[in-house]
């Protein structure tokens, strides 16, 4: 095989690995975000609107999910199509599209990462005992602007004893922390794989220009 075609085979092999991995991660991202919409495993709080604004944005669905799955589907198809391609120039257009879609996946994953971090920092929306107004719905672990930061908001991730302040939904703090942390890990992995595929796609484009040399 000519040298450019060897490169094409390597590009295709990488795509056949990255594509399915992104498909799995994108699916997990959507599943984690869907679970966040049902704190405590019940639909009642979603129907009543008593869920966090950070959850309502659904970064794991459109950012770490749909944007990544669109790219992953094309990447996987290109990877397996390269098995049957003989000429490197046939790979070039598909590699270029793969690189562009990978940039979209990288942007979606990065957005999911940032918004998940914000959701983890703000904490859950729950029914809790306030110091001024008795029990009410709100964000017990979020700092309020213009006021002295609440000690709970500064260390709630480290102090599990403070988690009991949320009365409803049951176990919402654990639910929020685990799933947002999972979204952070998933989106970080997606960013790494998408960046790798961008380089892989660029290499595939260069392969087309090398044909005949």
Automatic annotation (TrEMBL):
It is found in: Membrane. One of its GO terms (cellular component) is membrane. The chain crosses the membrane at residues 21-41, 61-83, 95-118, 162-186. Keywords: Membrane, Transmembrane, Transmembrane helix. Belongs to the L6 tetraspanin family. This is Transmembrane 4 L6 family member 1. It comes from the Eukaryota. Coiled coil: none annotated. It comes from Mesitornis unicolor (brown roatelo). It is a multi-pass membrane protein. Pfam families: L6_membrane (PF05805). Its main location: membrane.
